[in-house]
Design brief:
The structure is a homodimer of 129-residue chains.
Chain A lengths: L13 E8 L5 E8 H10 L3 E4 L4 E4 L8 E8 L6 E7 L14 E4 L4 E4 L7 H5 L3
Parallel strand pairs in A: 1-6
Antiparallel strand pairs in A: 1-2, 3-4, 5-6, 7-8
């Protein structure tokens, strides 16, 4: 049986993919895939997604160079979420942090704090616009 | 500024929450929260979600006893995904595995393999139906 038979895509044909750095266990990001981006991810060994806001197929790192080499693809009991282990080149976040989850809730007033150092600025990654 | 101002809920008022075991880095599950379940999670220190299939507010472990004690709540750059660090009691998965992501893709034929041992059967967790 193909694992594709176990997956449930949304009405829009999408499935959320959690991306984790295999060497550190750090959760880097969550993005959406359609079947084509999942197939391309498997075929090429580099993560590809579907951007809901831009309605566009994209390879992670296509403009930043911060690609993700796939080490493992797991799926959950309900078949509606993917967990992808990767080797991350540079920062995963377009804000220049290793992980997109660089802020945590702090204190009783529902404030927050930055928990990681910024590796690069967006201008350093993408150039000045 | 409250971190709630940074969050973007879907049109249905939901936000996906990735749950990670803090001590091991194992990603346990992904489930959806609405604002009420997030507020209750923060107030009680135990994870609460919104079930889309059952249209129901629920506490993780309410029937299994496998609760999750919250250690940290992070949110991503776009404010549309949460990452919650927890201390997990027992198996997170209703199938009796520590993690819901207990299967990984294997081989060129898109097969898959089970990558964790089953800690308990669903019958042991929930009783015979």
């Amino acid at each position: 049986m193909s694992f594709y038979d176990k997956l449930k895509f949304t009405e829009d044909g999408l499935i959320p993919a959690i991306v984790q750095e295999q060497s550190t266990g750090r959760v880097l990001m969550m993005a959406w895939m359609n079947r084509a981006s999942l197939e391309t991810t498997i075929a090429t060994g580099k993560t590809h997604f579907w951007s809901r806001s831009r309605q566009k197929f994209w390879m992670k790192g296509e403009s930043s160079g911060h690609t993700q080499r796939v080490k493992d693809i797991a799926f959950d009991c309900d078949g509606d979420t993917l967990l992808i282990q990767v080797e991350q080149i540079g920062a995963a976040c377009h804000e220049g942090y290793k992980s997109c989850f660089y802020r945590s809730v702090e204190g009783k007033e529902h404030g927050f704090k930055v928990t990681e150092k910024q590796l690069e600025t967006p201008e350093q990654i993408y150039g000045k616009k």
